[in-house]
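step 4 of 6: structure.
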Amino acid sequence: MKLSSSSLATDRARIKGLGAAKSGTKHFWHQRVSGVALVPLTLIFLCTMISLAGASYESALATLRNPFTGILLLCFLLAGVYHMRLGMQVIIEDYFPQEGIKLFLLMLNTFFAALMGLASVFALLKISFGM
Amino acid sequence: MADAKSPVERPLSPHLQIYKLTLTMAMSIIHRITGAALYVGTLLLALFLIATASGKAGHALASAIYGSLFGKLVLFGYTWALLHHMLGGIRHFIWDTGAGLDPVGRETISKATLIGSVTLTLLVWIIVGTK
């Protein structure tokens, strides 16, 4: 059955609804979902940082080794680097129309987000599991 | 496609220099700037965790740098950027539902974001200061 006679897209393409970029609203939606998660996680992160401010080495370790704090900080870190990678992607796409530079910066964006995430998670787990 | 560049000077769509600066527009720009600042600010968190994971000397060094006047200024800015971006995100969630987009609502919600972020930032630093 024909869905539309005015569109050049195939019926299958129209049903999938992903558009020319082949990703539909995925980017927008992931930005929102990670953003929703980050609201409470940010508040928890700030409370943790307040307790870490000016704290001795021993009490900083004790705070970060608490499983509740540790797990929630891990959630904050992972949701955070994912969210910021999505956000920076939009900024790059907006201001760098030149294909080569854009591609380079988009890759750099992914590498930076991955590095920040992995380094922070590694450090936090090292603190948590003993050193 | 590669040589599709037109030699004709095309008119550009109106941009920043054409429009009068409005509150919602300024808040949108600030939302992007704080997002980009937080992106770089992730380094601060990663470095603190790595320093703490490296041992007592690393934690002492990080504490000295972050506890210096310059360090505190940067962290104060980071706190505000984080809270402002978080509240800006909540504002976007509200707008996503279709609410608060009327002329009065969007101004009120934008002002609330700004007042909220400044208030919460001061609150965080008063708590840290009186620890």
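step 5 of 6: annotate
 - The two ends of chain B are 63 Å apart (CA to CA).
 - The helical segments of chain B are 23-54, 56-67, 69-96, 103-129.
step 6 of 6: archive
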